[in-house]
Design brief:
With 203 residues, this protein is α/β, with parallel strands linked by helices. The protein is built from three helices and 23 strands. The longest helix is centred in the middle third of the chain and has 13 residues.
């Protein structure tokens, strides 16, 4: 039996759990640092906190981190990597992934996502519902591309950057580490690191 532990009993965690069940995972359970205040996440049980997960890793075939905050997610992924844990990518069966694209360990690809040829997705990324990542894009670790966002070809998104819901990014643009692109923004020039841009065009 393939058992998946998900760290982070959030709304996003429910999406990850369902995607896992629709692929090849037989059982899904949660761990969350709010336990025991939180004992369930919808239909899935919450069995303990991060420490409890670390003490029971041998019971699971893999672990997913379902924490929306990019920096915290990366920290938890690194902690699990140090333990030699399998961090599978969770890919919804209704996502369309080019056979020439690569998806990093611990990433989550939600329903309706399209990833085109020669795109590389780093570890721990979230490609959220219905976003599209065109050819030759390069996404670093722990980025989050929100629902409905569109990245044109050759876009680079650096570590822990966040592209908001419905945003669009022109081809060959670079988005710096820890930056935020606001909801509905249209990005037509590079975004420096640790910068928030909003609007049409994004500034």
């Amino acid at each position: 039996m393939k058992r998946l532990a998900i760290l982070g009993a959030s709304g996003h965690g429910k999406v990850v759990a369902e995607a896992a069940e629709l692929s090849d995972w037989d059982e899904v359970v949660f761990f969350d640092d709010a336990w025991p205040k939180i004992s369930a996440n919808s239909v899935w049980p919450v069995l303990g906190n991060t420490e409890d997960l670390l003490n029971s890793l041998n019971e699971f075939s893999g672990v997913a981190v379902a924490i929306g905050n990019n920096s915290i997610r990366l920290k938890k992924l690194n902690l699990l990597c140090e333990q030699g844990v399998a961090l599978p990518a969770i890919i919804h069966p209704n996502a369309v992934i080019s056979r020439y694209a690569t998806i990093g360990d611990g990433s989550v690809v939600c329903a309706g996502v399209v990833v085109s040829a020669d795109t590389k997705i780093g570890a721990g990324a979230i490609l959220n519902t219905g976003c599209s990542i065109d050819h030759d894009c390069l996404l670093a670790e722990a980025v989050h591309i929100s629902p409905g966002a569109r990245l044109a070809g050759g876009t680079k998104v650096e570590v822990c950057a966040w592209v908001g819901i419905g945003a669009v990014v022109r081809q060959l643009i670079s988005i710096g580490a820890y930056s935020v692109v606001g909801a509905g923004a249209a990005v037509v020039k590079d975004v420096p690191e640790r910068t928030t841009v909003v609007g049409i065009p994004a500034q």
